[in-house]
Every structure is written in C-alpha cells, then in structure tokens.
Amino acid sequence: MNEKADPIKFHSVDTERPESFIQFLDARRDIEDELLVKKLVIDLLDLKSGHHVLDVGCGAGVDTCSIASLVAPRGKATGLDRSAAMIGEARRRVEGSGLPVEFIEGDAQSLPFEDNSFARCRIERVLVHTPDPRLVVREMARVTQPGGLVVASEVELETCFLNSTNEDLARRIPQGIADGVPSGRAARRVQRYFIEAGLQDVRLVPRVVMNKVAFLKLALGGRVQRMVEAGETTADEVEAFWEELDEAEGNGWLCSGIVCLTVAGRKAN
Question: What secondary structure does DSSP assign to 142-153, as a single string?
Fold first, then answer.
C-alpha cells in the first residue's frame, strides 16, 4: 500500500502532505486514457489565439500552461487553486517559460473575478472535492463571457471497477471513497448544474479511463489502509487483493478503471 498519496483529501491539501498530491497529479499523466480525456477537454474548449482562459482548481499548473501555449501570444491563461502549496508549485514550474500565464490562490465557490472576464473556463477533477459543486458551476458561468464556453470533467467515483475475485472489497473501496469526499457523487449531476446555471447547448461526453496497478495503489491505497485500521478488512486480505491485480497486469488480463464524464456548455449571448 502507498501511504503517501490519499486523493480523498484533496480538499485539504495544505494540511496534509502537498508533495504527495503533486505526485498523484503527475502520475495521472502516465495513463493514456487520462491524456485522452485531457485532449477531449481541450477540444471542447475550442481555444483560439487571444482567448483569456480560466483553469479552476489548476493544481500544479501543467494543464494551465498547455492552455497558455495554445492561446499565446495574444491570449492568457489564469490558474486558480485554493492550495497555497499547489500555487507555489505551479509558479515554480512556469518560471522562465515566457508563457502568458498567471496563478492565483482562491476559492472556486467564490471566484475573485468580475462578471464576463474569460472567454473560456474549465475545471477538471475538482467538483467532488468541493462542498457545493452547483455553486462552483454557477460561479464559472458568471465569470465567462457571453458566447463563451464552460467545460467540466469529473470521475463518477462509484463506477470504479476492479477485476478482483474479492468482489466485496472491490465494491466497498470505491463506495468508501465516494462517501469520503465532500461531493462524491457530483459527476452524475454536472449536466444538471450546467443547465440550472443557464448554460446552453449542454453536451455530455462519457469516457472510460483504464488504470495501471501502480496508479491504483496510489489512488486507492489510503482508502484500503483506513479499511484495515477500522477492522473492515485484514492486511492479509489486502495483500492478496494487490497480488491478484499485479498478476492480472503481468498476464495481460487487468481490467480496472473508472467512468469519466465531461460536460460542455455555452453561455448565452
């Protein structure tokens, strides 16, 4: 088990071990399906040179920088995150790049920007970690210019599937993660939030993200460890669980992943 990263605690990064969350975000970029989702988000944003784009919950800023490179030289990307550690890391990484990008510490539920400030606004894997995802979507719509696009991408946590013969453990792990974050079932409601926020031409695109065992250990290790500590399973049972998934990957029959829902909408003119 990996005790360093515990994505269930992304809503409290600065009181935990920020470096472990940065490690988790970087590890996502080693997964082909994750990169395909990121490409989907970029495609749905329909970026043009000169756009000013807001990246809500930017983390270490890798995606924000990618956006900045696409809207340069006349455009700009602004990354916002509530974590001071993440903003510090993002600023460190972009230093000397010359990219038109800035990073701001702030709350997604109360964006520190005027109405109609951005041509595009995006958020990825953040809504489940916020107490009021509906308010976040409303704030994103508020700061987007008329005719501008808003895109949100989120995983439906309870759809996590693990091809373990320990079906009880494989079922309880994702359920516990969904229960453990502030809004663990937000993904299935994002489409509704977009429509309620007045966005038009709302479109939902589902994708399945298949994961490697190393990433599963990084993502699920904290939850499994808490289950052992709570007496909900045993260390031997968990060891057998991971051994079977390692065997599955080694022999080519690993089938473990999660459903990701990406929603796009346009602000009325």
Answer: HHEEEEEEEEEE
